[in-house]
Amino acid sequence: MAELASLVQRLEVAVSRLEAVSGAGVASAGSGAGAVFVEAYNSLLSGPVEEYLSLSQQIGGDVQKQAEMMKRVFSCQKQFLITASSSQKPSDAVLSTLLAPLSSVIQQVQSFREQNRSSTFFNHLSAVSESVPALGWVAIAPKPGPYVKEMQDAAMFYTNRVLKDYKEKDKKHVDWVKSYLSIWTELQNYIKQHHTTGLCWSKTGPVASGSSAAPARSAGGAPPPPPGPPPPQVDLDQSPAAGDSGATSRNALFASINKGSDITKGLKHVSDDQKTHKNPALKTHGGPVCSGPKPFSIPQPAASSAPSRMGPRVLELEGKKWRVENQDGAQGLVISDTELKQVVYAFKCNNSTLQVKGKINSITIDNCKKLGLVFDDVVGIVEVINCKDIKLQVMGKVPTISINKTDGCHVYLSAASLDCEIVSAKSSEMNVLVPGAGGDFTELPVPEQFKTVWDGKKLVTTATEIAG
Questions:
Q1: Could you read off the pLDDT of 377-399 as tens digits, one per residue?
Q2: What CATH number is attached to the domain comprising 125?
Q3: Full-model pTM
């Protein structure tokens, strides 16, 4: 008996050891799977991200300052991925808390661009500001990859400007563009390999808690975290609770329907003198006519009584840039004594008119409403971005006019500028007015609708004719 008891005890010890080894193996397998995508993210940081940070430091100035903020953004995301690799997915409320530090530093990057609109490197700052929301892919499901691609495309509008300005001047900026765009290309590849249908969470670790969120350095109050996943859909097939008035109403409705032809017995007979189509006088004298339900209409939000905030009015030459900002109801603004190397940047100018005399390099109109612009000669480009109801009149010559994200733009060309190229994207209600022999203008709409077909080798896109 003693030998049998000793044998049983030894077997119990052996089984305990096997269970311990088995449990450790499962745990290491789970952490290993998480470590794989964390390690892959480290490769992204040490590759294109590190190259972007290095080139930003070489360029210096505002580009370097913004890059330091971006370094914190990637650091926050890495911390979030580490949490996901070792924890199970938490509730929506806890997930929002975990995402708060990442949301905060992304907001700081975007605010930095807004605070430095007069910066020499404004296009660099804008490229980063427009695309940094791509790092919110961790909250996107089921396909975060296309979302990152969309943000990358938003950056290319400004990186193309950087390439145009520095292609022949400084190769450092060209390399900066390549390294920055490669971040988003590599991130898409990373997501495709490790998080195709959304961020992967551990299936064996503890449920993530809000204490895992790393505090973000913020100059002001932290912005609200990005919204979590949508709430679960209501199951209409669930049995109603006792005393549910909605369920009672539905049961009564179905009972009435099941009556068949008997359902019409309770209807009241309407005589001819009560029918409006046989007695039109009822329509005008208000009698016993009951109006039917009114057409559905979307409720309009109440207009805010608080005026929109605008900064101080600016009309000044800063270096080579004429700044025209926050002009509201200013008629007759004039910029004269211009030089060929100067540019004009108009921002948040509403219900105003601006005349630019002489020959200058370029003009940019950003976030303006009901602005009229008259200019003589531009050797580069005239750009209209994020505007509404803009009127441009060319007195001399301009090679290119770009219209982007704008609703309502009328372009009056001069006889000398009929060869002008007009490039538009994400815009509507665009018209070009061409001068005639008698001085009258002929108004021609710019196509907004396109047709694309596959010809067997490539896609062929043509503008469709505008009816009317």
A1: 999 999 999 999 999 999 999 99
A2: 1.25.40.330
A3: 0.47
